[in-house]
Write a structure and sequence with these properties.
about 0% strand, mainly alpha, two-stranded antiparallel ribbon, 2 strands, single chain
């Protein structure tokens, strides 16, 4: 039995006339909220050392802030209806939040600055970065350590010294242009594929649906309809109660701490560990995904990750070397999953070929498809995509990369970005990352023996774009396109998105640089500043010192993964009753699947029972329970942050993360 998405969020070709349009006050409020969220995320991670609020595809800080705004708007709607935000204005605010919240810390700025600043600060005679990297790095792309600029950034500014901000201006200006080009690529692709995904394939977009539901409420009620009733309060009490109780443990450690979060368990010796803890953020959103997708995720995880890797471990087979950062836990899982992701993207583009052909024909004046309901005209989207892709490739050439490296790196990057956006849009998983970063895909496909030192040095800088393998702008913009579906004159949203991205990037760069010179970036206790750079550059130097040819072993695993994905896709579309959804196969190999397995299995079990007993009616009746879990968790984590700010500044509690 197929179950619906969140109530009142089914996509349709025509927006409701009462929904309204983008307004100036919504844009101003959206910008303020987005910048405030980014400040909250950076402060929590770098200063308070509390929860990491940006790791999910619906960043926790955005969810909590939008929840509070929706509730406050309910009060205004009750007391002064003419001042309350309309549903379109709330959706505008949420869309700008999606675009802006991807920027700070592990989203973009933290990873990029951590990589760029590390190449001089962590260089020693022993690691030989000076010999292999420094002479091959373009000066315009990396801030120098002249006048101790990077040393003071990591260690803090000495008394009486002025911060050397000038060292950052030139390099960051170029990287901002590159990020804007990359963002334009993602926005244009999202516009080109929106009608195919939203109207033709009718993807659920559970993350956007949950957000849109919070924006809906009856005129005479303060809370949205989904946040009412006994089941809502039951879910609220479970998640909020556990977090609140554990907050008391901060002050009285003798109290027993309620178990939750990550709990690694090894069931069979030699087999991968499994997280048996519950992530309430994952569980809350997972309820709104299709049942067969939830089943497929945990089934494929057991079959193709746990059992497969367990058997390979027991027989002693492994692909070496295996750089474990930026990809799945093993090289087999990484390349098998990347093959499946590549097939997923190719199949989706193939099924959308008629629509894509129409879009390009319209852009070149060969057809006249109606694009009045898109964020951009098809002409702007197509030519924007072509122009921004050319800029991205030219930038990589300027970094010193050879043409053959760019020719593999850019398609691998687009595969990762499109695959993650598709998976999140279809499954509603709050946490998903790719199995293999595009740098590894390019290097092991081509081999490093034929790459110049400038190519190797240049690609080492692009590890700043890995950003936890979440696809940077593609997933947020895909959800923005879905959120804008019921809004009239939605083209007004594009300048707002540009504004929030540009100001967000600049503001986060400035804030991070200021905090670095104030307290020392090494004291952020953040992985991008303490370990990402040393890992990336040491790996690059080792690959330069010990060059290798094309890794055919990895490519065989890649094609095996693609073949399995092709078979599963055929079975899914050929046999309507086939129980396994192919999208679960590439997810099974990811690091986030290890973390989310038990939460997904638990939610699948609950949802399967509800649909078996009471069908769609009972499924809808229990939606408030999972909204209660999300709302209670949001309030609990926010309360924990406030407690850390007041009583434990700099020694906060990271109760929310993966």
């Amino acid at each position: 039995m197929a179950e619906p998405s969140v109530a009142r969020t089914e996509p349709g070709p025509h927006p409701r006339p009462e929904t309204g349009a983008v307004t100036p006050r919504a844009v101003v409020l959206g910008l303020i909220v987005a910048l405030g969220i980014n400040f909250w995320i950076s402060t929590s991670e770098y200063v308070i050392h509390a929860s990491r609020m940006q790791l999910a595809h619906f960043p926790f800080a955005l969810f909590a802030a939008f929840l509070f705004i929706a509730l406050l708007n309910g009060v205004l709607r009750r007391l002064t209806p003419h001042r309350a935000l309309t549903e379109a204005e709330l959706l505008t605010l949420l869309a700008m939040g999606f675009a802006g919240a991807i920027i700070p810390t592990s989203g973009i700025t933290g990873f990029l600055m951590g990589i760029l600043a590390s190449v001089y600060y962590f260089a020693t005679p022993e690691n030989q970065w000076g010999t292999y990297l420094h002479a091959n790095l373009p000066a315009w792309a990396v801030p120098s350590n002249e006048y101790h600029a990077m040393t003071w950034f990591f260690e803090g500014l000495p008394a009486g010294q002025r911060a050397p901000y000038a060292a950052w201006i030139g390099p960051l200006a170029w990287w901002v242009l590159f990020l804007l080009a990359l963002g334009t690529v993602c926005l244009c692709i999202s516009v080109i594929l929106r009608r195919q995904w939203v109207q033709n394939e009718r993807l659920l977009y559970p993350l956007a649906s949950v957000g849109a539901t919070l924006a809906q409420a009856s005129p005479d009620r303060i809370r949205p309809d989904a946040l009412r009733g006994g089941l809502f309060w039951a879910g609220f009490c479970i998640s909020f109660g556990i977090v609140a109780w554990n907050i008391l443990v901060y002050f009285w450690p003798v109290l027993p701490k309620l178990p939750w979060g990550i709990k690694w368990t090894v069931f069979v010796k030699g087999f991968p560990r499994i997280n048996t803890g519950i992530n309430y953020f994952t569980a809350g959103f997972a309820y709104f995904a299709n049942l067969n997708i939830l089943f497929s995720i945990w089934f494929f995880f057991i079959l193709f990750f746990w059992i497969e890797n367990g058997i390979l471990n027991r027989i002693g087979y492994a692909i070496t070397p295996n750089p474990t950062n930026f990809d799945a836990e093993t090289a087999v899982a990484a390349w098998q999953g990347f093959g499946a992701l590549t097939l997923l993207v190719c199949w989706n583009l193939w099924t959308a070929r008629a629509h894509i052909r129409t879009v390009f024909a319209t852009a070149f004046g060969k057809a006249s498809a109606d694009d009045s309901d898109e964020l951009l005209s098809y002409r702007a989207a197509v030519f924007g995509l072509i122009g921004s892709l050319l800029f991205v490739c030219a930038f990589l050439f300027r970094l010193g990369m050879q043409g053959k490296l760019v020719a593999v790196l850019v398609p691998a990057l687009l595969v990762n970005y499109l695959a993650i956006a598709r998976i999140v849009s279809e499954t509603g998983l709050a946490y998903v990352r790719t199995t293999l970063c595009e740098q590894y895909a390019a290097l092991f496909t081509l081999g490093t023996r034929g790459l110049s030192p400038a190519s190797m040095a240049g690609i080492s800088l692009t590890y700043g774009l890995v950003a936890q393998g979440k696809g940077i702008f593609m997933t947020p913009f895909a959800h923005v396109a879905r959120l804008a579906d019921p809004i009239r004159r939605r083209h007004r949203l594009v300048p707002a998105l540009i504004l929030v991205v540009v100001l967000g990037i600049v503001a986060d760069f400035l804030l991070t640089i200021h905090l670095g010179y104030k307290t020392g970036a090494f004291n952020f206790n953040a992985w991008p500043f303490s370990s990402a750079g040393p890992f990336a550059y040491s790996l690059t130097v080792s690959q330069m010192r010990s060059p290798f040819d094309t890794s055919w072993e990895r490519l065989v695993v890649f094609f095996l993964g693609a073949s399995v994905m092709a078979l599963l896709t055929f079975l899914h579309y050929r046999f309507p009753r086939w129980p396994l959804h192919p999208i679960g196969f590439p997810i099974a190999s990811t690091w986030t699947a290890q973390l989310a397995f038990f939460s997904i299995f638990l939610v699948w079990s609950i949802k399967a029972v509800l649909l078996k007993i009471g069908g769609v009616t009972l499924y809808r009746k229990w939606q408030p329970f999972f909204f209660g879990i999300l709302v209670g968790y949001a309030l609990g984590i926010t309360l924990s942050f406030l407690v850390d700010v007041i009583w434990f500044p700099g020694q906060g509690h990271r109760v929310h993360g993966w």
